[in-house]
Amino acid sequence: MGRWEFMRKLEELLSDISPSEREEALQYYNDYFNDAGRENEKEVIQALGSPEEVAEIVRSGLMDDPDKGEFTENGFASQQKAVRQNEIIQSEKVEGSRKAGREEEQGTCRGSQNRAAQNTGSFAEGETEGGKEKDGFPTWAIVLIVIACVVLSPAIFGIGGGALGVLVGIIAGIFGIVIGIAAAMVALYAAAAGLVVFGIVALFETPLIGIGLIGGGLLCAGLGVLFMILTVLIFREGIPALIRGCRALWKKITGKKEECRA
User: What is the residue range of the signal peptide feature (predicted)?
Assistant: First the structure.
């Protein structure tokens, strides 16, 4: 039961007395609640008892035995009940003051801990007595980063240029090998054709030399076929695999940069 329900019930129970006496009694208990404070309303209700008990005290004081109670400047109250209520309210005030002191000490300790965490470089957010403090990137750190980039830029560009040169050199070397294999294939085919022709011509004059030339031509033709197969495999499998590897490496590098930015 809350304060307003208590007072409404008490007003209903005191409807049989005169309006002026009812208003004085209600004003008296309202003042008790105000003195105790909102946080102590339940304790005051427990101390006063039920609305029926309070109404009975008021009626007994007004009707049966007026000496048991009196109308003070705040309203009517039984003398024994008033003494008890005053003691309870005073104790509640003392307890409220102690509780407020403990809360103030806890708030001071929390504020000191938050300030210590901020001084040691912690980025954890916390509420202090002055409000919330926003984390920010310090200006001196930005200045140091800019200076470091300017000072280290030759080394950075040198390393980057060297890495780019190595990558371009590897790619150029691979293409050079491919072109060399293709050129060797063409040369072997040409040599095979020439040897076969000269072998056929020499076959009529000196058959042994002609057969040797034709055999050398066939050998060159076989090597040419081998180089042709190797060239086809490089163009079909090697170059696409190289392109896919470069693309994956680029995505990995750019992906790491995006993660760092995020």
Answer: none
Which residues are paired to 69 by β-bridges?
78
Instruction: Count Cα atoms within 13 angstroms, Cβ side, for 122.
Output: 11
User: For the chain, what percent of residues have pLDDT higher than 70?
Assistant: 68
Q: pTM to 2 decimals?
A: 0.34
Distance, CA of 2 to chain centre: 43
Least confident piece of the model among 90-99, 186-195, 225-234, 248-257: 90-99
Least Cα distance to 191 among 215, 168, 169, 172 occurs for: 215
Using alpha carbons, select from 81, 46, 86, 31 the residue that is nearest to residue 61.
81
**CA 194/CA 220 separation, integer angstroms:** 10
Place of tokens 């007004």: 62
**What 3 state SS string does the chain have?**
CCHHHHHHHHHHHCCCCCHHHHHHHHHHHHHHHHHHCHHHHHHHHHHHCCHHHHHHHHHHHHHHCHHHEEEECCEEEEHHHHHHHHHHHHHHHHHHHHHHHHHHHHHHHHHHHHHHHHHCCCCCCCEECCEECCCCCCHHHHHHHHHHHHHHHHHHHHHHHHHHHHHHHHHHHHHHHHHHHHHHHHHHHHHHHHHHHHHHHHHHHCHHHHHHHHHHHHHHHHHHHHHHHHHHHHHHHHHHHHHHHHHHHHHHHHHHHHHHHC
